[in-house]
Amino acid sequence: MGMKQLFQHAAITEGVTVRVAVNFLPEQSRVEAGKWFWVYHIRLENDGDQPVQLLSRHWRITDGRGMINFVDGDGVVGEQPVLQPGQSHDYVSGCPLGTHHGSMEGHYTMQRADGSLFDVAIPFFPLAAPAPAN
């Protein structure tokens, strides 16, 4: 990703910051077939004083009709990254929808060095594409 990402959304939980940049991708979408596609870039920052590991992700994806899809899985893009104090971790993923707008929000389950678990909020962010021309 050559362009410098502008993170439009952020949430902080117990010293872990989650930043999100989201972009509509017309070239990955098939608007005439009712398929819209977004890419989102997430940066996790550990501003705490002990390492944390991302174990799982939990998403709530809502489309423009109000249909909600819950997505739960291990790690992010196949990784369960460990963030040392002061470290960050970036990844990019995508979300298809059958409507031209919607939203995503959720949380990560993380583990501290002592084995305790905690949930880290992913900020709510809208998915918005240009409205289809009639």
TrEMBL record:
InterPro entries noted in UniProt: ApaG-like, ApaG_domain, ApaG_sf, Uncharacterised_ApaG
Domain (ApaG) ranges: 10-134
PANTHER family xrefs: OS05G0170800 PROTEIN
Organism: Novosphingobium subterraneum
SUPFAM superfamilies with a match to the protein in the record: ApaG-like (SSF110069)
HAMAP family listed in its UniProt record: ApaG
Gene coding for it: apaG
Protein name: Protein ApaG
Domain of life: Bacteria
